[in-house]
């Protein structure tokens, strides 16, 4: 079994959980915060929705240096529009499809 074939069942399970979580976020509660110092619910949903896209980028890269923040240090941090729950759901679906398309060719080709 290839690395990709072994990874896909776990990925699919995690994406099903992600989809269920995003479906449960009420559209009208995007600005709600669990605590005054917390991110809004809409922003938290956006972060969860972007994880599959981040995974795709990691697979395409040959090196992942989490200590190198120069590329992002000059950009202003992007904040989610709290009312963009539906956009976060669509983004997660699209990122999930892109990740699955890249997995067999990307991960297996780089396996030793």
Describe the structure.
The protein has helices at residues 3-23, 41-60, 70-73, 85-110. It has 112 residues and is an all-alpha fold. It is built from four helices and no strands. The protein has a domain at 1-6 and 41-59 and 67-112.
Q: How would you sum up this structure in a few lines?
A:
By secondary structure, the protein is mostly helical. It has helices at residues 3-23, 41-60, 70-73, 85-110. It has a domain at 1-6 and 41-59 and 67-112.
Features:
single chain; 112 residues; mainly alpha; 4 helices; disordered C terminus
Number of strands: 0
Helical region count?
4
How far the N terminus sits from the C terminus, by CA atoms, comes to 14 Å
From the alpha-carbon coordinates, what is the Rg to the nearest angstrom? 16 Å
Structural class: mainly alpha
Biggest beta sheet summary: none
SSE order: HHHH
Topology:
Layout: H1 3-23, H2 41-60, H3 70-73, H4 85-110
